[in-house]
Amino acid sequence: MPNMYTLCEQFGQILGGKHTIENGVCSVKIKRNDLHTSIMGKNAVSDHVIGAMFSFESLDEQGNALNLGETALKQEEVYPFISLLQQQGIFVNSLHNHWLFMEPLLMFVHFSSIENPILFAQKVAYTFQQVKKMI
What we know:
By secondary structure, the chain is of the alpha+beta class. 35% of the residues lie in helices and 39% in strands. The protein contains 4 helices and 9 strands. The strands form 2 sheets. A 6-stranded antiparallel β-sheet has the order 1-2-5-6-9-7. A hairpin with a 2-residue loop joins strand 1 and strand 2. The relative contact order is 0.19.
């Protein structure tokens, strides 16, 4: 089994973001620069608004971990994104909005799996690629 740093580095490369490790949790953040929105009439580009975050933790001897993801989505991306995740065995935990007075309204999806984190990252990266082609 690869060490945590190597695994986290691969996880970040696959997802296209910067990785960090803190308290045994590998986290990766990316910014959805293709999303343009405002809150209360002001441009909003914060990670809180257009970010995507992924992590894994509790890596076991078999190489499986708790994998978590959250991303902002355009409304037209929601159904294809969720469908593709579910087809690949990733559990969709919630779908909701975060901000009132947002224009256009973005939705936020939270998802998880217990599996090899590299496999999870590949599935999520594939989902983003496929949805981008569809929309």
